[in-house]
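REQUEST FORM: STRUCTURE PREDICTION
Request ID: SP-0412
Submitted by: Lab K.M.
Chain count: 1
Length (residues): 210
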Amino acid sequence: MKLLRILSLISTIAATASITAPAMAIPFGSNTVYKGVDGLYQVVVFSGTPGSKITVSLGSVPKTTAKIVGSCGEVRISPPASGAFTGLKVDGTAVDASTLPSNTLPACSNGAFAEPRTANFKTPNNEVVIVGKTAGTAISIELPQPSAKTVTVNACGFGQIKATATTPLPSTFSVGTTNYTVSSLPDASKPPLCRTANGISTGYVPSTWP
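STATUS: Completed
RESULT:
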């Protein structure tokens, strides 16, 4: 049975309504995806069935790796899962892979290619090859990679993703085929809370909610 009562909490939410589990979900009005601010940081809240999992696609985020330059001054960069090198940077310098000429990678002997390669190129296998670097040194490779987060809906019927001091929320994200823009999400001001005592989970929402 779902119970509804008004409580006073010693917290940032002075007056709240509470819903005692088993609750089905905690939407904001009719909205199952909405935003709020928890302390200093913005959150996005997903209302759903307790225990269910929601896959949130966060778009592409830069991923930096280090590679050691080969003995002929070359760096080979394998194609990402998407097959596209959009956003590629080598030692902080952008590389437009779409404009690189296609060429084969010649054999390397005693620090020199069997055939000269004076400009960056792509191989028939879609590898990007950067040339002219110092053999044996490390360089940084930055390439955006698809990012996703799995949100587990808690016993009160909601889950969330939260910004941190170093990682802001993405400006857009998607769930399945539905795309969302954070700035356009319904603003609940404060997110709900979930507290569990004696095996009973209770969700708390601001009394100002619709």
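NOTES: The two ends are 21 Å apart (CA to CA).
Reviewed by: T.R.
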